[in-house]
Design brief:
The protein is an alpha/beta fold. The chain is built from nine helices and seven strands. A seven-stranded mixed beta sheet has the order 2-3-1-4-5-6-7, sandwiched between helices. Helix 3 links the parallel strand 4 and strand 5. Helix 5 packs antiparallel against helix 8.
């Protein structure tokens, strides 16, 4: 194809977008969930970086831009909450975020099933409470949502990601079936999407990244997978309670408590441990910043000199 024609077409499309007031759209992604499950690794993929991520101590923020179909660059604001379930109280910051379009990404560690349900339940409860308190966030409209026992969908788009799938896939088939059934039910009950992911699998990483950037694309509906022997990929609205209930051995209507009992009876949940935070994160080698560290060292030396000088005057 003629590159000149292509460039002219791009220029025309761009000018049309600008003439229509084609200002960039802004989106907010808020990552919560298990510690060391791959949240930071996934976020780095938005920047096409393969570097080793640093541990997230508390709440971190980054942003990136991506061109949409009209060639206008959309802005994505990304928050990541570290610390696992012990940092759940910090999810309350959602109530103060000044954003219009928000998506919650809840990442669960599929290699640590004895704490997975505790994390799932605690994070869902905390996030829902905080979002409902925030009046600036547009709440979710789910026209194809299936109500179950009066349950309403999660108030904003929710994506549940099962991380470390590479370790989970070697689990016994029966146990994998139970995990997938329970997570599918919780996801569908909340009008959420569910994806299994591994930072060690380029294909799963690419698929997850593309979904988070454009979750409404109909392309995703063509690669839906409900099979527990393969990594789940179920966009919101593509599953059904009928399908999920057919895969269970328990009679009666579905409920969160029923599936909680199914899961926890198979995988007894451990007591939550409090995350260890360094006494002084500035001294942690994982957070080296040469320019800042050099300035701080100089200020520390100046402070020590002043202290020594004052001490000399007193004597």
């Amino acid at each position: 194809r003629n590159p000149v024609i292509r460039d002219v077409a791009k220029s025309i499309a761009k000018s049309r977008a600008q003439s229509k007031g084609g200002s960039s759209n802004e989106y907010a992604l808020f990552f919560i969930g298990d510690e060391s499950v791959g949240k930071s690794s996934l976020i780095l993929q938005f920047f096409d970086k393969n570097e080793v991520p640093k541990p997230t101590l508390a709440l971190e923020y980054v942003f990136f831009r991506k061109s949409n179909k009209s060639l206008v660059k959309d802005v994505f604001h990304v928050w990541e909450l570290g610390g696992g379930i012990s940092s759940t109280p910090m999810i309350s910051v959602l109530s103060n975020l000044k954003v219009n379009s928000l998506m919650i990404i809840l990442m669960l560690d599929l290699s640590s099933l004895k704490s997975l349900w505790n994390t799932l339940e605690a994070c869902l409860r905390a996030a829902e409470t905080a979002v409902l308190e925030n009046k600036s966030i547009s709440k979710l409209e789910a026209p194809h949502y299936e109500k179950e026992n009066g349950q309403e969908p999660f108030p904003v788009p929710l994506v549940i990601i099962g991380g470390k799938y590479d370790k989970f896939q070697s689990l016994e088939p029966q146990k994998k079936r139970i995990v997938c059934q329970c997570l599918r039910f919780v996801a569908h009950l909340n009008g959420a999407s569910i994806i299994f992911y591994s930072s060690n699998d380029a294909s799963l990483t690419k698929k997850t990244k593309e979904f988070l950037i454009n979750p409404k694309s109909t392309v995703h509906d063509k690669v839906v997978n409900l099979d527990h022997n393969k990594p789940l990929f179920i966009p919101a609205g593509t599953d059904s309670f009928a399908n999920i209930e057919q895969r269970t051995d328990v009679n009666g209507p579905g409920s969160f408590e029923k599936y909680k009992q199914i899961f926890t009876s198979q995988f007894e949940q451990e007591t939550t441990l409090v995350a260890k935070v360094p006494d002084d994160p500035a001294l942690d080698s994982n957070f080296k910043e040469p320019a800042i560290d050099s300035l701080r060292q100089r200020k520390d030396e100046e402070l020590e000199f002043i202290r020594h000088e004052k001490k000399g005057r007193r004597t």
